[in-house]
Amino acid sequence: MIENLFSVVLFFSLGYLARKKGIFDKEGADTLIRFIIYFAFPSLVVYNVYHLQIKPSFFFVILAGWLVVIFSILISFLAGKVLGLDRKSLASFVMMSSFGNTSFLGFPFQMALLGEEGLRYAVVFDQLASFLPVSLLSPFILAYGRGEGGFSIDLKKVITFPPFVAVVFAFVVKQFYVPDFVLEGLKTLGMTVIPLALFSVGINLQFSRVRERLRDISAVIFIKMIFVPLVFLGVLAVLGVEMDTAWRSALIEVAMPPMVLASIFVIGAGLDRELAVSSVGVGILVSFITVPFIFYLSGLV
Length: 301
Hints:
CATH architecture: Up-down Bundle
Strand content: under 5%
Shape: globular
Order of helices and strands: HHHHHHHHHHHHHH
CATH topology: Na+/H+ antiporter like fold
Number of strands: 0
Number of domains: 1
Helix content: over 70%
Oligomer: single chain
Structural class: mainly alpha
Number of helices: 14
């Protein structure tokens, strides 16, 4: 496991050092992210969905992903109330505790711990059980934080998001023969997602007043990366679910640190910026310990 995780730590560390040394700045990272979203990520999705053997049970995995998000929202809301957070901080707390970094950090962990087969399940889980929930549920949470009675969902942005379009396209193309040289080209382009995503995350990593918000950040990390994954694993064990690759892949995704996109939503809504940014930064570092530990426990079930 340590050998497999080395490349994850390496690419992430290089990105962080590149920013500290002034080799790359935020604008450079944004360029990498646009390349990933519009070209590399869709290629990875099409290649992996084309080779994915869909079992009926996988639909239960997607359903479980949605239930985990809803459970996380309820638990984090109650925890935030206990902590005495104000309306803006409470909404930010719920956002960061409920949505995970299932692609930019999730995919490298999938490759390191489960290989290509785990990654194939992860790309579908990421879009249907992570991107869709944050797109459809976050407007409610953010509206609560702003003290608004209404909310709006930009469905056009949801259905035109390149990776989501790629998922739909891939399931259509899956019904037809695609030449090997085309698939290999998609694979080569798609595999750049892993190093570039980690590198860009490293560039963007910042710690903003972590000490002053340590209590709230620790609560976010505990709920998102320890409590909820352990509850998820415990429920699967009680139900006697066989921990095959699909379920272990889902567990890795559930155990991911707070989502970068969720922090962007929080900042854009004018809520608790410091809690959002710091939770992402601390969560990434903690994930190098908690995710392998949760994965190890799944092998004991």
